[in-house]
Amino acid sequence: MFTTYQEALDWIHGRLRLGIKPGLTRMEWMMDRLGSPEKKIKAVHVGGTNGKGSTVTFLRSILQAGGYTVGTFTSPYIEQFNERISVNGIPISDEEILELTNVIKPLSDELEGTELGGPTEFEVITAMAFYYFANTNNIDIVIFEVGLGGRFDSTNIIQPLASIITNIGLDHTNILGDTYEEIAFEKAGIIKNNTPIFTAVKHPGALKVIEEAAEKMSAPIFRLNQEFQISGHESIAKGEVFTVKTKTLSYEELKISMIGQHQTENASLAVLAADFLNQAGFQVTEASIRRGLNEAYWPGRFEILSENPLVVIDGAHNKEGITALIHELSNRFKDRSIQIVFAAMRDKKLDEMIAMLDGIAEQISFVSFDFPRAAKAEELLKISKSDNKLAVDDWKSYLIEKIKNVELNEVLVVTGSLYFISEAKPFICNNI
Fold first, then answer.
1. pLDDT at 171 over 70
2. Which residues contact 102 (CB under 8 A, 6 or more apart)?
3. 125-148 pLDDT, tens per residue?
4. Which of 2, 102, 203, 350 could lock onto 8 through a cystine, CB 3.0 to 4.6 A?
5. What are the distances in angstroms from CA 273 to CA 35, 72, 214, 233, 356?
6. What are the chain's domains?
7. Can you tell me the distance from the alpha carbon of 261 to that of 264, in angstroms, rounded to the nearest whole number?
8. Residue 100, CA distances (Å) to 30, 31, 40, 118, 126 in order
9. Whole-number Cα distances in Å, 290 to 142, 260, 309
10. For residue range 13-42, what is the model confidence (pLDDT) as tens digits?
11. pTM attached to this predicted model
């Protein structure tokens, strides 16, 4: 038994050594031992390549504005580990993490001795989340974010009220497949029988795979630019304004505080899912939708940490994320010199990502950070074709100096791996 939060956290993180082991058998084994907590929860399941966390946040904020108590399970964390299991946006306490770890640890030890093998870090945390939400009073609904893929993701043991697939990109190709269609097949694994699926997937091949899965499961499907449309989009100083329409409803001039055109798609999925929940016994009004969208906040997504000096942080950790980041930088800061600090995992499509950043950065700095799969600064530097580039091992000292020297015509953009962003954001906030 663990006696301190730090002991519990060290044990959880120690499970990282097991890597990623797709499959549901270990989760089903643990859920059976825990009395099937996943069957006691009303849930919405959110998958996709990018935008999952933002969509979870929009939907949570809408439901919370309607007076509901909403649990969320997300990954990875940005500011503190506990935020992965939250209620109404507030991370559970250190004491609760300790209690949950002491519930799951004996099961993990028992599993270790079977042919199934011990659970991974993500499986442990997912089991903790199911147990917590099923045994905590007054939680009305839980929104689960898929960790990786969908079909064999640890969260995919739930029977949700609705499922959402945000988009499809070529990420985690070593596990999910090399094509949009192969990846879409894995993501579509969260579609359940007779359960509506809301999606903003635009790639034709990927969308066809999702449509086929929905048809096979007799799942009603709501597609961007088909069953629903976004129009009247306008970027404002701190957010976006847009309209969402279907054949039966119209929400005019919705406002979100998250920056980026892509966030209008994530918000629209949340709006449609919230509207559908009215058929499942919830009461979500237009006023709740408007207030919830406007109040929704998710750290590390094109977040302006400082106006003077101008510092932006963004968890653009794959090609699709970099594309969205560059679109916003070009749109909002076209008259400024773009200074980029970038860190990444070595299993990403780094050549494409870095080439895109090279194209917009006046200067690009590559940094190393302490994580098992992280690429070294020198590795990233070799890929870059920029005429103004450098590699940095001590990113903390470098950022302090860089922030001090940001000029009026410059914007400092810190981007890349969400694991790096989770370290960099609090550090920057303490040193601005």
1. no
2. 1, 2, 8
3. 999 999 999 999 899 999 999 998
4. 2
5. 29, 15, 16, 20, 34
6. 5-295 (3.40.1190.10), 303-431 (3.90.190.20)
7. 6
8. 13, 14, 17, 17, 11
9. 21, 18, 32
10. 999 888 888 889 999 999 999 999 999 999
11. 0.92
